[in-house]
Amino acid sequence: MPCVADWLNNPFSIVQGIFAQNVPNSDWEKKVTEYFKEKLKENNATNWVPSLNDVPVHYLKPNSLVKFRCMVQDMFDPEFYMGVYETVDPNTNARVLHFGKYRDVAECGPQQEIDLNSSQTVTSERQTFYCVPVPGESAWSVVVLNLQFYAYTSASQARVSPSTSYTPSRHKRSYEEDEDMDLHPSKQKEQHMGNSRSGGDIHGCVEPKRLETEASAGHHLISPNCSPPLDLNFPLPGEKGPACLVKVYESWDSFKVNDVLEVYGILSVDPVLSIVNNEERDSSALDPMECMDTAEEQRVHSPPASLVPRIHVILAQKLQHINPLLPACLNEEESKTCEYRNLAPLFVSNFMSELSPVRAELLGFLTHALLGDSLAAEYLILHLISTVYARRDVLPLGKFTVNLSGCPRNSIFTEHIYRIIQQLVPASYRLQMTIENMNHSRFIPHKDYAANRLVSGVLQLASNTSLVVDETQLEQGQLDTTGVHNVTALGNLITWQKVDYDFNYHQMEFPCNINVLITSEGRSLLPSDCQVHLQPQIIPPNMEEYMNSLLTAVLPSVLNKFRIYLSLLRLLDYSISDEVTKAVEEDFVEMRKNDPESITADDLHRTLLVARFLSLSAGQTTLSRERWLRAKQLEALRKARLQQQKCVNGNEL
Amino acid sequence: YLGPPPAALRRFRRRLRACLCLAAQDARSPPSQKRRTEDSTSTGDLQPMPTSPPADLQSPSGPDALFSSPPQFRHAAIPLDFDISSPLTYGTPSSRVEGTPRSGVRGTPVRQRPDLGSARKARQVDLHSDGLAEDVVATEQSLGQKLVIWGTDVNVASCKEKFQRFLQCFIDPLAKEDEDIGLDLNEPRYMQRLEEINMVGEPFLNVNCDHLRSFDENLYRQLICYPQEVIPTFDMAVNEIFFDRYPDSILEHQIQVRPYNALKTRNMRSLNPEDIDQLITISGMVIRSSQLIPEMQEAFFKCQVCAFTTRVEIDRGRIAEPSVCKNCNTTHSMALIHNRSMFSDKQMIKLQESPEDMPAGQTPHTVALFAHNDLVDKVQPGDRVNVTGIYRAVPIRVNPRISNVKSVYKTHIDVIHYRKTDAKRLHGVDEETEQKMFTEERVEMLKELSKKADIYERLSSALAPSIYEHEDIKKGILLQLFGGSRKDFTRTGRGNFRAEINILLCGDPGTSKSQLLQYVYNLVPRGQYTSGKGSSAVGLTAYVMKDPETRQLVLQTGALVLSDNGICCIDEFDKMNESTRSVLHEVMEQQTLSIAKAGIICQLNARTSILAAANPIESQWNPKKTTIENIQLPHTLLSRFDLIFLMLDPRDEAYDRRLARHLVSLYYRSEEKMEEEYMDMAVLRDYIAYARSYVNPRLSEEASQALIEAYVDMRKIGSGRGMVSAYPRQLESLIRLAEAHAKVRFSEKVETIDVEEAKRLHREALKQSATDPRTGIVDISILTTGMSATARKRKEELAQALRKLIQSKGKTPALKYQQLFDDLRAQSDTAVTKEMFEEALRALADDDFLTVTGKTVRLL
C-alpha cells in the first residue's frame, strides 16, 4: 500500500499501479479518480496539497499532486492523445503497455521505441482550459489560504513538504503565531500587501517571494529566442500570478468560461515541452504537417512550461464562492459528495445564531466608513449581498447596482471606500473612469484569430466580483470609438448582467454576475438600480488618517466575521408567502392610487429587491410584513434625499 | 524514423469499425443475425467481413470464406498484388502510361488527389488466399468478388459497379425545381451532371451523400467509413462512364468525385476519436486562411554523374531521396530538380464553430482544414461553409532524435467539398441550413403542438413571459416573427411584395419596451439590436472600407443587411436622426438597400422586419395629443409600420394588482418552476423556424372574400366623411397578418379565422394609435396624413374664418399680428390657441393670400 507521501509526491506510481492491475479493461481510469477522491476526503487532506496559487512553480516538484484555484479564461480546442500506448524494445522485442493519460509526453525508456502502429493503442480526447487566478482576488483571501495550508502541513506528523527545496519563511510559524499575528493587522497588512493584486501599490513593499517569481519569470521571457514577452492574458491590468493550462479529462462540457474552479491534478513542467516548441518552429519549414499553426498561435497554445505550467486534472470542482473562510460547498446535495460533509450545516447554523450582532457591527463599521451616513451604509450592505439568483428570459433578477452619489470630488474618499470593500469581499476591482482609461483600456474580451485565443478584458470577471466604478475621476473630454464601446459595455453589464464578447465576425454574450457600485458626484451617467445620495455627518480633517484608523481599529476576527457574513448570505434561499404577497399587492395598489405619477412598476421592482436583501441580511429566508414596511421606509428615506438634492441643485441654478 | 500515420493501427481500427457497422446492420436484419451467431461460435471474437452483400447472400459458403481469429489474421494478411481494376495503380505516374484501356481515359491525364492523402498503396486481399479459409471450397464465387481492400470490407469491383448503377439510374424523388435549375427531374440526375461536365469542362462531380444513401445504404456506409479507398473507386467508375459516353471530350484532367452532405456529423463539438479517417460534414465559419503552400507531390531527381533521372512520389508527407543512382551506382549523386518536380497547391484554413451551435458560456472550437488544388482560395474569412472532408489525426514528434513522442495528435480535415451556406443570401432565401435542423421527432412534436386549439395563445404567452400582460402586443410580435408569405410579382412588373411585418411600439418610459426588444433579439437567429441614439446611417446600411492589407475595397454590412431574413430591433427610434431614419424608407417597403459609394454601386437585400420602440416626444405620453404629435415621426415612415402599438401605463387598480402579483412572484419562485409553466424558448424558436421555412399559406377563396369586405369596410368609414382613409398599404398589412396567423397554425391555407384575427389585431393596434383624441373615432388618416380628419376640417374652417375677418377689414395693406389674433379670438366661438392661429396664417400664406413678416401681416 503506498504511503501518504506517495500519492502527493508521486501520483504516477499510484496511477501506474492501478493501471497495471486493470489493464485489459478501461475502468482503470475510473478507479484512479476514485482513489484520489477517497484520499482527498480523509481528514482535511485537501489542505496538504500544495497550491499553485501560492508556491512558485519552480519550487514545486514536477509530476506531483498540486491544487489550483482559478478562473477559466479561455477554452482551447479539444485534443486527441494516446490514452494507452505500447513501447517495444528493438533488441528484445519486449512489448510494454503504458498509459498516456495525465501526461504531455508519451514516455519510453532509453532502449524502447513507441510502436505507433500497435493495435493496443487507444486514442482518447481531453480538453484544455487556459486558467488564470481569480481576477481581483483580495489579498486577505490568499493569506487565509496560505495559513490553512501551512497550519496543516506543520501540524501534521507525517509532514509533507511541498517540495524538496522550498521552505517558505512563513512556513516555520505555527498556527498560534499566526493567530497572534492576526491581532496586529497593521503588521499583517504590511506583510501581505505585496500579495495584493490590485491597489496594493501604496505600500510598495514587495515580498521577497514575489520578487523571486518575477525574476524567474523574467528570465524565461528573455531566453532563448528573445521574443517579446508573452502576454499571460490576465483580465485585469497589473495582475501577477501563475497562469496555467489545465487539461480536463472528463465532463468538460459542464465547465464554462469565467467559472471558478478548484482543480487537483498532476503538475507537468516537463522541459521537453519547451523543446517541442523550438523544434516545431524550426522544422515547420520542412514539414508541411506542422505548419498548421502560426508562430503566434504556437506561442500562445504551447508556452514554455516553466512560465505556464500544465495541470492534468484528476479532480475538478466548480466553486460556488471563493471565500476561503467558508466551507467549499454549502448546498445540501452537493455537500454529500464533498469532503466537508458534516461541517457545512453545522457551520451555517453556528454562524446564523450570531448573525444580528455581526450585522449591527458591520453596519456601524460601514457607517463610519461612509462618514456617518447610516442609510448609505444600509444600502451598501444590501448591495454587497446581492447576487443574480435567476434570469427570466433576458431579465436578470437579483442584481442591485448602487450609485453612491454625492461623493466628494477629487478626494481619496472613493479610494478608501474601495479599500474597505476590498477588505470585505473575496474579489474586487476598482475601475477608474477617467477619459484616458475609457479610451485606452480593453474592457470587452475579444478573439484574436491570429493567435486563436480570447484576449481578456477588464469585464471578464468571475461571478460575485465587486466592481467599484469610480466616476468622480471623470473629467470633461472626448470619448473615442473604444471609449463609447467601453461605456456601452459597462452599461449593458449593469442593465442585463451580460458582456458581449467580440468575436470579430459576430458577438457572443456571456452572462455574468458582477456587483457594480458606482461612486459619483452627481447622478451617474451609467444606469443603476438605485441611487443613494451620500450625506456625510462628519467631515474628518484628514481623510487618510481617518480611514486608516478605521481599518486598524477593527479586530481581524471581527473582520473575518464580516467576510463570512457577506459571502454566506448571498447563498441563502428566499421566498415570499402568499399572505405577504397579498399585502404587497394591496400596498402597491394603494400607493398607485395616491400617487400614480411617481410610483411605477420599477419602484415595485426595487422595493421588492430591497425587501429581499433586507430579509436576507437579517438571516430571514422569508419576507415578513415588518421587513416589507422597513424596505418601504428605507426607499422613502432614500427618495426624499434625492428630492431634497434636486431642490438644492435647483436653487443653486 | 517514426513515420506519421500509424497505418496498421488505423487499419485495425477500421476493421473493428467495420465489425461494429456489421453488428449494427445485424440488429436490423434477422438473416444476417443468424449468420453472425453461427460465426461467433466458430471464429471467436472478431467478426467476419463480408465481401459484397449480394455475393454473400447467394453463397452458403460466404461467411466461411472470411477470416477467423484476429492474431492469425494479422499474420496471414500478407497481401497479394492484384492489379486488375484496383486503385493501386490509380493516381500513380505509371497509370499515366498504362491508363485504362479506353481512348478517352488515356487521353486525359489523371490528377492526383492530395485531399485523399498521398497515393497510398491500398492493398487488396484475396479472401481465398487466406490460409485459414483453405478448408472451405468456394466454388461458386468468382475471384473478383472476393477482393477487398485490406482493412476494409470494400470490394472494388462491386463498389464500382454499384456506383455506376447509381449514376445511371438515380432519380431524386424529392428534388425541388429551384435547387437544380436546368435539370430534368425525371431523368437520372447525375447523368445530366456528366453532360454538364462535358459541356462546361469542369472535371468535378459533386455527389450528394443523401442521394447515395437512399440508393444503397451499404455503399453509403462504405463511403463514410473508408473514403480514402472508396472515392478513388468512384472516380474510376465515373471516368469509365464518362469517356464511354463522350469519347472525344477533352478535360483538363480526369473527373474527380466530390461527395458532400455526409450526414455523419453536423457539429464540430461532436467530433471524437471515432471519426478519424472517416468522411464527415461539419458546418462552421472560416476565420483564417493561410497563404498558398506549394506541396511537393512528386520529386524529380537527376544523377549528377550520368544524368539518369528518376521520379519519387511523396509518401506520407515525405520524399525518400534515392541514395544510390540505379544507373551508374554512384552513391549520393542524385540531386533534386525543382522545376521538374510536381507540386500541388495547398492551403490551411481555420474553421470555427458557428455561433448557433455553441452551448452558452463556452468559447467556440476551431478545427484546421487543408484545402488542395482547386479548393484553394475558394473561401474567405467570414464565410459560413459546410465542409465535407476526411478527418485526420497525426502524432507530433518531439524530436526526431528522441524517441519520446508528444502524446497528443494533431487533427485536421482534408477538404473534399465546400458548400457555402450563405452564398445564396444575396439571391434568395437560404432554406438549406434551416431545414436540416429538425429531427423527425422534433417535427412530429411541433406538428402535434400546432394541432392544439389554443396554439396561438400558447405561443404568445410563451413570448417574453416575464413581461406582464400586453397580450395584443405579444400577439403582434408573434405574427411578426412568423411573417407573411413571400410573393413574387416580378414578372408582372411589381417586384417582390414584402412579407415582413413591421411593428412600432410607442409608449411611456419604463413599460418594458426595451426588454421586449431584447427578448426578440435573443430569440431570432438573425436578429440585430441597435439603439437609435447610437447608430448612424452607415451603421445601419453598409459602408465601404479599404482593407489595410490588400488595399482592396470591402463592403461592410450594417445592422439592416445583417438582419436579412431576421428582425432588426431598433430601440429609441425617436432619438434617431432624420438622415438615418430616411434609409429605412427603402428597407421597409422595397426590402432592399441601395448603395452608391466609392465606386461600388449595388443593391443589397435587406428583407428584415423592423421592431422599433419609441418614446413619446414629451417622454410621457400626452393623452391630449395624437400619436403623430406624440411621436413626431414623419407619417411616410409611420405608414410603413403594419402595426403601431401603444404601451401605456393603464393606471387601473385591477391591473396594478395583477402586476404586483406578477412581480412579487418573480422574486421568490425558483427558476425551474417558472420554466415548467411556459413553453421552452428553444421550442418556440424551432416552431417559428419550422413554420417560416415550411409553411407557405395561400389565400383561400373565403379568406380573400373576407379581406375584400374588411377593406371595403375600412374604406367606407373614411368615405362616409368624404375622404379616403384606408390605403392599399393597409390591405397589404391585413393580408400579411392573416398569412402569419395561418402560419402559426401550420396551415397551408389562409382561412376566415386568420382574416378575423388580422382584422382584430389591426383594429386593436389602430384603435390605440389612430383614435382621434377629440372625437374618439378611429381614423386611419391620422397615420397617412399625420392629422385627423376633424383636425383638418377645423384647420380649414379657421383659415376661412381668418380670411373673412381680414377681408372684412377692408383694403388695409398691413395688419398687426397681435391685433389680428385678438380679433379672431373674439370672433371665434371655440378657443383659438396661438398655434392654431399661426397654422391658419400659414395656410393662407400657402394660398398666396398674405405674407407674415415679423409682427405684421401683409396682404398680397
UniProtKB/TrEMBL annotation, chain A:
The keyword Nucleus applies. Keywords: Nucleus. InterPro entries: MCM_complex-bd. The keyword Magnesium does not apply. Residues 182-192 have a biased composition (Basic and acidic residues). One of its GO terms (molecular function) is chromatin binding. GO terms for biological process: DNA-templated DNA replication. It holds the Pfam family MCM_bind. GO terms for cellular component: nucleus. Residues 160-203 are annotated as: Disordered. It is found in: Nucleus. Belongs to the MCMBP family. This is Mini-chromosome maintenance complex-binding protein. It comes from Circaetus pectoralis.
TrEMBL record, chain B:
GO terms for cellular component: MCM complex; nucleus. It is found in: Nucleus. Transmembrane segments: none annotated. GO terms for molecular function: ATP binding; hydrolase activity; single-stranded DNA binding; single-stranded DNA helicase activity. Keywords: ATP-binding, Cell cycle, DNA replication, DNA-binding, Helicase, Hydrolase, Nucleotide-binding, Nucleus. It holds the Pfam family MCM_lid. Its EC number is 3.6.4.12. Residues 25-70, 89-123 are annotated as: Disordered. Component of the MCM2-7 complex. Belongs to the MCM family. This is DNA replication licensing factor MCM4. It comes from Circaetus pectoralis (black-chested snake-eagle). The gene is Mcm4.
